[in-house]
């Protein structure tokens, strides 16, 4: 009897491509909605007479929301399924983005963007788990990495659209800037209609008939559960397993490396014009420099995506932290340097950090079994956002208190901490099936 082909070894089909659009659209929207505040910050601060404290708090509010949304979304996705939670994030984005048209105080903006952050927190475990549990192993790493590219593409789009709206001459144009994510959110809700539940999650809940029906619908009538390599484990794992044994070590690695890779990035995105102005880039240099650097983040992620199955996960993460950390050290040392040198160093950081960025979704989705995969992704997103929120809140205070040079040195220290943790704990999961990658026996 011939061994049935595993669904992890089938070629990409139309469903895989369509699912990539459905999941990837969430990351475009995440990048857009989290970055748009950086475009609107200067005019809204003036219009609402906000001091540095409130500017930092509003910029960090969505990150604080991610902390709660990641935990909640991860737990609920594990219990209720991926499909049911697939519409929560976009719905929150639409409602809260539109509501910002009438925000009249720093507190109102803080609360609305906090809720937006909760929606983003739901996206990480829901869309990531759904995509990885359908994707063949050969394409799993690149497709998960693609989500990060789309996040930066959404961030770049936010700066382009935001600057166009601010330049329109409309009164209170910053309100239109903050409300603009609603259009993407509506489109995303429509495109996600008809998405099936993950057969791996159904199988983990003992719903074998439904799991087989999904497999046959996606891969064809000749496929069945025999083509799914992952079978229910003899010993069930629970969320508590994320805190001890081998999974506790993996959770520590994911939380620390994810935090160290996002803290400098979110701080830059929230206050890109201010950071660039502090580095002696003013006027058009500051406005369009932020767009150019964001595009270089995309370039770095594209390069990393192309190399992820070539150099492996561990090697890519180590080199990403090493060279991006050195670029930040250069920015600290040459903070008063020529405009071109500053742009080159900032651009180098943007390109080199791409490896760590794309692995934020690859590692947590590969290192944990189906029962706790979404919880692990949600916990990683939540814990990483604690540092990101604090770092973002401190940026305006840091620029004013210790200057741009020391601020860049602090960002370099965070990045090099990620390097040390990766050297000690980063595993290699290239070419493994999901069951092999998540196994503690290897």
UniProtKB/TrEMBL annotation:
Q: Name one Pfam family in it.
A: Sugar_tr
Q: Which PROSITE patterns match?
A: MFS, SUGAR_TRANSPORT_2
Q: Where is the Major facilitator superfamily (MFS) profile domain?
A: 19-430
Cross-referenced InterPro entries, in alphabetical order?
MFS_dom (IPR020846), MFS_sugar_transport-like (IPR005828), MFS_trans_sf (IPR036259), Sugar_transporter_CS (IPR005829)
TM spans, by residue?
A: 27-47, 53-73, 85-103, 109-132, 144-167, 173-191, 252-272, 284-304, 316-334, 340-363, 375-395, 407-426
Q: What is its main location?
A: membrane
Note the topology in the membrane. Multi-pass membrane protein
The text of the family note is: Belongs to the major facilitator superfamily. Sugar transporter (TC 2.A.1.1) family.
Can you say what this protein is called?
Answer: MFS transporter
- Species of the source: Variovorax robiniae
């Amino acid at each position: 009897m011939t061994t049935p082909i595993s669904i992890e070894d089938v070629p990409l089909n139309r469903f895989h491509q369509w699912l990539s659009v459905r999941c990837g659209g969430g990351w475009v929207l995440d990048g857009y909605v989290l970055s748009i505040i950086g475009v609107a910050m200067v005019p809204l601060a003036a219009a609402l007479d906000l001091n540095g404290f409130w500017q930092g708090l509003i910029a960090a509010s969505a990150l604080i929301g991610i902390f709660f949304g990641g935990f909640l979304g991860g737990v609920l996705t594990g219990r209720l399924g991926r499909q049911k939670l697939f519409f929560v994030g976009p719905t929150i984005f639409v409602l809260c983005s539109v509501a910002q048209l009438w925000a009249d105080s720093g507190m109102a903006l803080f609360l609305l963007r906090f809720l937006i952050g909760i929606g983003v927190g739901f996206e990480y475990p829901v869309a990531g788990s759904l995509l990885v549990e359908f994707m063949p192993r050969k394409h799993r790493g690149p497709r998960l990495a693609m989500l990060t590219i789309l996040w930066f593409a959404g961030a770049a789009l936010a700066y382009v659209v935001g600057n166009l709206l601010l330049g329109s001459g409309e009164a209170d144009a910053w309100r239109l800037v903050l409300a603009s994510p609603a259009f993407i959110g509506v489109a995303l809700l429509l495109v996600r209609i008809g998405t099936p539940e993950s057969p791996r999650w159904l199988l983990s809940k003992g719903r074998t008939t439904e799991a087989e029906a999904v497999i046959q619908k996606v891969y064809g009538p000749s496929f069945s559960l025999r083509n799914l390599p992952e079978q229910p484990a003899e010993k069930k794992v629970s969320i508590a397993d994320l805190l001890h044994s081998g999974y506790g070590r993996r959770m520590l690695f994911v939380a620390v490396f994810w935090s160290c890779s996002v803290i400098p990035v979110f701080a830059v995105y929230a206050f890109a014009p201010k950071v660039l102005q502090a580095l002696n880039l003013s006027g058009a240099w500051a406005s369009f420099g932020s767009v150019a650097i964001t595009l270089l983040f995309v370039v770095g992620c594209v390069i990393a995506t192309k190399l992820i199955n070539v150099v492996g996960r561990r090697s890519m993460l180590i080199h990403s932290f090493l060279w991006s950390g050195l670029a930040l050290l250069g920015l600290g040392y040459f903070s008063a340097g020529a405009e071109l040198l500053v742009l080159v160093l900032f651009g180098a950081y943007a390109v080199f950090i791409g490896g760590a960025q794309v692995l934020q979704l690859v590692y947590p989705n590969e290192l944990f079994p189906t029962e706790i995969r979404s919880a692990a992704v949600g916990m990683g997103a939540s814990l990483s956002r604690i540092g990101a929120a604090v770092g973002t809140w401190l940026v305006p205070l840091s620029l004013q208190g210790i200057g741009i040079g020391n601020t860049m040195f602090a960002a370099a220290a965070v990045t090099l901490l990620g390097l040390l943790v990766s050297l000690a704990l980063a595993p290699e999961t290239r070419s493994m099936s999901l069951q092999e990658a998540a196994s503690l026996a290897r």
